[in-house]
Amino acid sequence: MSTSRRSFTREPPEQRKEALITATLTLMAEAGPAAATVRAIADKAGISQGMIRHYFSTKEELIVAAYEHHMQAMTEATAAQGSQTGTAADRLENFVIASLTPPVVDPSAMALWAGFIHMIRRDAAMRDTHRRTYYNFRDRLEALIGAALREAGQIAPPAKVRRHAIACNAVIDGLWLEGGALPDAFDEGELAEIGLTSIAAIIGLEFHKKERAL
Amino acid sequence: MSTSRRSFTREPPEQRKEALITATLTLMAEAGPAAATVRAIADKAGISQGMIRHYFSTKEELIVAAYEHHMQAMTEATAAQGSQTGTAADRLENFVIASLTPPVVDPSAMALWAGFIHMIRRDAAMRDTHRRTYYNFRDRLEALIGAALREAGQIAPPAKVRRHAIACNAVIDGLWLEGGALPDAFDEGELAEIGLTSIAAIIGLEFHKKERAL
DNA sequence: TCCGTAATTATGCAAGTGTATAATTACTAA
DNA sequence: TTAGTAATTATACACTTGCATAATTACGGA
To answer: Which of A134, A175, B99, B128 is the most buried (most CB within 10 A)?
Structure first.
């Protein structure tokens, strides 16, 4: 009989990887990057630590995958709420609101992001993910701004729309950051309201939707 | 004679603390938070590791002091360039420009900041420093905005000036972040230019200074 | 000049780290 | 039913970590 090992079932690679990634993100969000050790990750995922090296060639690689996962989740969260229907201005408005309210604005999500972002200077894969994520967000914003301006009958040179997108992106990022870092400093809905007002001023357009319920 | 120890001189506590703090910041900026071990810090500071526990009750305490130091340096850098003389609009303009050009905008400074900021959720002292730093920056911005508006003969309700300050702060933070994270994505002076244009639009004022040299 | 004190160095320690490897076990296909 | 194989677990290893403590040394006041 020898020593009794814990029983296990074989699972598809994608499921195992996802479990490891989720465990990594949970640990990092709850207790910081330092808490995401191979043993803690494996424990939280309910498997043995050998699995990390089996599915990822190194812990570093798992971290990169977790970063990618987190950023994709945030991207999807901003795209979820009806950025598809309605006028361009409406879609832009929804996009901004989604970006500046929970669950996108969230202390855990912000801390997680910060725990990753300092790595982009030293890790090429992390840098690449950051670059891709940033441009993806900004390009979507730029498309919405351009469409909203055209919709309002304004001619907008591409260079100007680009600068608008950079500026609006910065407003959103800044407010998102501050909402995550000091959650008690802002009333509910305040970040979105300030974001919309600022973006309207920057691109020279007004949003027409009625006040949202608080 | 026994074993030969390295010779040393006694130095004032402030000097030792500063050496340790500087070493910590350098290591964290160059190689990330994980590289700032007690041994590496002591080596870089040119003293033995026992000094860390002698001047700080724990490594954590040194990290907090280093964070405080870094944020104060950034604060001073934004205050340096003539935010004292000239019209309020000029001072606001200088403040924004200083915040959106090197050495404030800097990949190392940004990575350093990110390496710290994820700790504010778990460490009360870090959280306190962040809160203080954030409000200090925003309050200075709010004062400048209020003065600039009054100067232009506009009446501005305090609540409105507050919202303006939150928004302008977000623009600056966002641009600062993006400039540090993707230094090649923006031309020299572009961040400051976009920042000034956006802030002018948000508070409804124009900056009159001539174009700055690139 | 010399002694006491505190700063400083050196060393030790228990715990934890990522990774490598060996031992087992579940599942598949014949 | 039974091999074979790949997934999974368990364990070992070399190294690093933060902290504690003992041994030394510089310096100021008598």
So the answer is: A175
Q: Is the CB of A41 under 7 A from strand D?
A: no
pLDDT tens-digit map of A63-78: 999 999 999 999 999 9
Q: Does B25 touch chain A (CB under 8 A)?
A: no
Confidence tier at A4 by pLDDT (50, 70, 90): confident
For residue A101, give Cα distances in angstroms to A192, B27, B150, B182: 7, 36, 33, 25
Q: Chain B contact for A54, CB < 8 A?
A: no
Task: Tell me the residue type at B137.
Answer: F
With a 7 Å cutoff on the CB, does B50 touch strand D? yes
Cβ of B75 near strand C (under 7 Å)? The reply is no
- The residues, any chain, with a CB within 8 Å of residue A134's CB and separated by 6 or more, are A169, B178, B181, B182, B185
pLDDT one-digit tens code per residue, B183-200: 999 999 999 999 999 999
Give the CA-to-C1' distance from A73 to C23 in angstroms: 39
Rounded to whole angstroms, the distance from the CA of residue B10 to the C1' of nucleotide C1 is 22
* B174–A contact, CB cutoff 8 A: yes
- The DSSP string of A155-186 is ---HHHHHHHHHHHHHHHHHHHHHHHH-GGGS
Tokens at A194, concatenated: 């300030």
Tokens standing for B210? Answer: 């001539």
d(CA A153, CA A89): 12
Which residues of chain B have a CB within 8 Å of the CB of A185? 131, 134
Protein CA at B20 to nucleotide C1' at C8, angstroms: 15
* Domains of chain B with bracketed CATH: 11-56 (1.10.10), 62-203 (1.10.357.10)
Size of interface A-B (CB pairs under 8 A): 133
- Model confidence over A125-151: pLDDT tens digits? 999 999 999 999 999 999 999 999 999
- Predicted confidence at residue B177, as pLDDT, reads 98
